[in-house]
Amino acid sequence: MKVKNFFINLKSNLVSGIAARWLISVFAPVLAVVLLSCMILCVFVSNFYTTTVRNKLRFEAENTSKYFESYVYPEYRDFTTCAQLLVSDFDKKTMMEIQVSNISGKSAYSSTGFAVTELSITPDVLEARTGTTSYWSGRLETTGEKIISYSAPLYNTDHVVCGTVRMISSLKNVEELLSTIYLIVALVGFFIIALTAFSGIYFIKSIVMPVRQINRVTLDIAKGNLNASSLNYSSSDEIGQLCRNINMMANELADSQKVKNDFISQISHELRTPITAIRGWSETMMADDSLNELAKRGVGIINEETERLSKMVEEMLDMSRMQSGRLNISTTPTDIIAEFENTVFMMGERAKGENISIVYNMSDEECIINCDKDRMKQVFFNIIDNAIKHSNPGSEVMASTQREKDCIKFIIEDFGAGISREDLPYVKEMFYKGSSQKRGSGIGLGVSDEIVRLHGGSLDIESELGIGTKVTVTLPVSKELQNDNTD
To answer: Measured between alpha carbons, how far is 33 from 36 in angstroms, rounded to an integer?
Structure first.
């Protein structure tokens, strides 16, 4: 498993970004050059040694042929005597073998000391019988040993070919030497490739890995998660300076965020008291029968706006708690369907005032889950309130529940203005309202999404401009609680 994970991590580190560019632009050319150089060097060395042996054999064969024609044959006139003399006087027997034979090949003598009963007729011998010096490389039929042979014609005093002389050298020692050279070349090439690979790994570790960590941290910062992680890179180079600057920036942003959250929290708390007083006095004044219709209408507007302002203050407090990590939930076993129905019923009365009807079929089913019922009612309220707010007078808002195996879904769908494709990815961000001109702070949906997330669920939005919006809240269902409720 560890080996598998190593190769998975290696693959992911080398197939993208700067690492991939290093692999293509540096390592691949070095690998190609080293392999090509090793191949060329091996071929050159092989040709060099083979050519050296061949030239040496040619030199000896041609000199022996000249010596035979100029001195030996004119003196003895007998081919057998001349052949034996050439073989016996040859002084390089330890380096190569000499074979002398007549034109038919039936009478042959060798420097090995063994009688040649049957001369091996190779192409070079046949060429020599026609008067042409030639060489041949291959394996002997008798022993299978790889050799190089060079054959030259032997001329009598009438300058007629009367036999051949062949110089033979085994390539066994040459092949052993070449094998050693090939091994050395391969080791040198492997060392160069390994050195390049290790230097590249060091490069990836010292440059690419910190850059990837920087990308992750800056992405967290862009998402507003300023306390997620910090960059631990102590080098004094440009990467180290960049890491320290990003850490400094994150700390400054975190301090600014804290000041902002503290300010919002403090202002929200301070606004609670005057809002409560305004609401109380407005309700008292509305109960006064001595007020005329215009005054009552004005007090009613004051009361409605006070309620809206109170809701905004609570949303701002929740936002402040959420961004500082203090938005907590207190879960208890709750019949979530009943809480949803209560919220739908409460919001239904409000919707009627705006000539909008909420369509919902009451259910006798229970679904007990661990949740903070007040927070979940806040989520349902915000979503239904948004649906009413963005619906046209005379339209409907559809509310329904959908029970599945391990979760329950609450679906609220309106047929109003809808959300544009450009705005849809951002509607759950704080203070984002897009092109909507409807009243609201742009906080409620972001807070609702965070509350659902704290419950282990999800809040999904589907919308099309001019057609409507569908919001689905999915919450996990505990099998144990369902079994306990059944019992």
So the answer is: 5
pLDDT in tens, 209-232: 777 788 888 887 776 666 656 777
In a domain, 20, yes or no: yes
Instruction: Confirm if 387 and 397 have CB atoms less than 8 A apart.
Output: yes
Q: Which two tokens stand for residue 376?
A: 């979940």
Distance between CA atoms of residues 459 and 319, nearest Å: 17
Query: Do 262 and 403 lie in a common domain?
Result: no
- Distance between CA 93 and CA 110 in Å, rounded? 10
Q: Residue 292: which CATH number?
A: 1.10.287.130
Q: Where are the beta strands (DSSP E) in 57-206?
A: 97-102, 108-110, 134-139, 146-155, 161-170
**Residue 156: count of CB within 10 angstroms of its CB:** 16
In-domain check, residue 216: no
Please report, for residues 31, 322, 371, 443, the alpha-carbon distance to residue 317 in angstroms, rounded to integers and kept in the order given: 62, 9, 21, 10
SS3 content of the chain, % helix, strand, coil (to 5): 55, 15, 25
Tokens at residue 330, please?
A: 């207190």
User: For residue 60, is it within any domain?
Assistant: yes
Domain limits at 291? 252-323
- C-alpha to C-alpha distance for 444 and 256, rounded to whole angstroms: 23
The position carrying tokens 């309700």 is 283
Distance of alpha carbon 86 from alpha carbon 188, whole angstroms: 47
372 with 278, same domain: the answer is no
Distance CA 416, CA 423 (A): 16
What is the rounded radius of gyration, in angstroms, for the C-alpha atoms of the chain?
49
Q: Are 384 and 412 in contact (CB under 8 A)?
A: yes
CB neighbours (10 Å) of residue 386?
Answer: 24
Place of tokens 């009243």: 439
Query: 357: closest CA among 392, 320, 332?
Result: 392
- Residue 337 burial (CB count, 10 A): 20
Element (H, E) at 463: strand 458-464
Q: What is the pLDDT of residue 185?
A: 93
Residue 126, both tokens:
């046949």
| Contact status, residue 428 vs residue 445, Cβ threshold 8 Å | yes
Q: Decide if 375 contacts 315 (C-beta within 8 A).
A: no
The CB-side HSE value for 414 (13 A sphere, CA atoms) comes to 24
Q: Is the pLDDT of residue 16 over 80?
A: no
Asked if 85 and 75 count as a contact pair (C-beta separation under 8 A), the reply is: no
pLDDT in tens, 322-378: 666 666 778 888 888 888 888 888 888 778 878 888 888 777 778 888 888 888 888
